[in-house]
Design a protein that fits this description.
mainly alpha; 6 helices
């Protein structure tokens, strides 16, 4: 089971602001790859991050796929995850803060997943070894 790199969500938030969003785009791409590795399939199309530079609404679809992938990862690892996509969209529309909140919440959840490590494996009982 894949275990990703823990990062401080506040660091991601601050570096994204200081770099005018460049760090955030790179973080989005790398995090999408981590989520895909953890799920064992491509649930998040990381190329959408770069396309969103030219076509803003694409980032909203990207965030939707991230939210769905986090939900699947939570089920897979036995960690509760409540969808945040509606909150992210509302914050985009009202305060232009949806992307920053999405990054913060995504990394906070992933940190919980990475701290937990691999889920317990349920092996079938082995017959006793007779001498």
């Amino acid at each position: 089971m894949y275990i990703g790199e823990k990062q401080e969500p506040i660091k991601i938030f601050l570096l994204s602001i200081v770099t005018c969003g460049i760090y955030g785009l790179i973080w989005d791409y790398k995090t999408g790859e981590e989520i895909n590795k953890a799920l064992g399939r491509e649930a998040v199309n990381t190329n959408l991050v770069w396309i969103s530079i030219l076509c803003f609404p694409v980032i909203l679809y990207y965030l939707y796929t991230v939210d769905q992938a986090l939900m699947e990862l939570g089920v897979q690892r036995g960690i509760r995850y409540d969808s945040n996509f509606v909150l992210w969209i509302l914050l985009y529309v009202v305060a232009s803060a949806g992307w920053f909140v999405a990054m913060f919440q995504t990394q906070a959840f992933l940190n919980r997943v990475w701290e937990q490590g691999a889920p317990p494996q349920y092996n079938e009982p082995q017959p006793p070894i007779m001498p």
